[in-house]
Amino acid sequence: NAGVTQTPKFQVLKTGQSMTLQCAQDMNHEYMSWYRQDPGMGLRLIHYSVGAGITDQGEVPNGYNVSRSTTEDFPLRLLSAAPSQTSVYFCASSYGRGSLGETQYFGPGTRLLVL
Amino acid sequence: ELKVEQNPLFLSMQEGKNYTIYCNYSTTSDRLYWYRQDPGKSLESLFVLLSNGAVKQEGRLMASLDTKARLSTLHITAAVHDLSATYFCAVDDFWGGGSEKLVFGKGTKLTVNP
User: Fold this and answer.
1) Interchain proximity A45–B107, CB inside 8 Å
2) Which chain A residues are Cβ-neighbours of B90 within 8 angstroms?
3) Is B106 in contact with A40 (Cβ distance < 8 A)?
4) How far is A14 from chain B (nearest CA, A)?
5) What does the pLDDT look like over A25-72, one tens digit per residue?
6) Could B99 and A104 be called an inter-chain contact, meaning their C-beta atoms sit closer than 8 Å?
7) Mean pLDDT score, B63-90
8) B17 inside 8 A of chain A by CB
């Protein structure tokens, strides 16, 4: 299993550009999430999904869109990039609360720089 | 709103010493996670604590959970350099209406000096 994969690893954008961060998992996990990590802030939840076709907002959803058309993929779209979106983005997946002891598995991250 | 507070945020310790990292959270939760992150890397799961009084140990790390006090501890025994990393606790905000919504602490950057 590849686990959770993310592409690209690194991206530079200009203010106002749009882009999609890709996330895929091959563990048949129902739950998938996107977090951003900023220095001194820990990780903050952007959006999450509890299954194909179902998404919801996290703590910091503004400026981001998600969709979940398949169990495997959970792309994150930046609609109009702003310097405040410069961050490291992590995708995570898990089986969910029904599986006791199950943790979230994190992808390798995407480093985004918005100029 | 669930808030998670870790302390200390920075910890410098000598090899061979013991220390404890604390994780307090503000509202009821029944699930707490500890993760490790090396510089420039992703998060690696260390422990999942599911109930009051839960204690888990792996090598020189031991984690415990007191749901009544809303407190988890990560105890480091006889630290070695390889334990240098940033450690995060995260709490499941299920009772805030969000299944699998994790709220993270800001992390504790641990440096173990020879």
Assistant:
1) no
2) 43
3) yes
4) 23
5) 999 998 999 999 998 888 999 999 988 999 999 999 999 999 999 999
6) no
7) 96
8) no
Which positions ≥6 away from A76 have C-beta within 8 Å? Answer: A20, A21, A23, A34, A46, A47, A64, A65, A66, A89, A91
| pLDDT for B98 | 46
Query: Residue B93 phi/psi, 5° resolution?
Result: -90, 35
Query: For chain A, how far is it from start to end, CA to CA, in angstroms?
Result: 36
| Token pair belonging to B95 | 């009772």
Residue of B nearest to A43 (CA): B104
Interchain proximity A100–B50, CB inside 8 Å: yes
Average pLDDT on A2-30 reads 95
Q: What is the pLDDT of residue B92?
A: 85
Contacts of B50-55 with C-beta under 8 Å, sequence gap 24+, read B50/A100, B50/A101
